[in-house]
Please model this.
Amino acid sequence: MDKAEHYRDLKAEIDSVVAGETSVTARYATAACILAQAMAPRFFWTGFYVVDPLKEAELVVGPYQGTLGCLRIPFGKGVCGHVAATGEPIIVADVHAFPGHIACDSASNSEIVVPVFDAEGKLAAVLDVDSTSLDAFDEVDQAGLVAICNSLLIA
Ligand code: SME
Model:
């Protein structure tokens, strides 16, 4: 099975598990678990930073799989904060070369971050996937994760 096909299968699995589920936390937890299990060991850390409704422009850690993550990331800071500020996905081949990168775990060397929007099109969270390898993510990963994130809160 090629990678694009694998992502299509995983999206179908996630959509089917969360169908009818009204808890956003349950939806994030399901996606983080299915992705982390299916893509191990390439996905070293897989999880969500959600927009904190009580704070101006700040992400707080949500459901994830992996080593201990940082709790809070201001918009504009690090890779996740950059995606929260721009609303655009990003692939970072070498996190050590990314200005302001937040090293929650020094084992991470590359990452991909994708925004998650709610049914009204408002930013709800970002999906952050880290790898211990340099340059671990490509356009196929981005397309697959964007498709999963696009239906995660509305399927
Ligand atoms: N690498 C992220 C921080 C989150 S952790 O890696 C889990 C960043 O710079 O946004």
About this structure: Residues 45, 69-70, 73, 78-81, 101-102, 104, 108, 111, 128, 130 surround methionine sulfoxide (CB under 6 Å). The chain has a mean pLDDT of 96. Helices lie at 3-18, 24-39, 78-86, 139-152. The chain is about 35% helix and 25% strand.
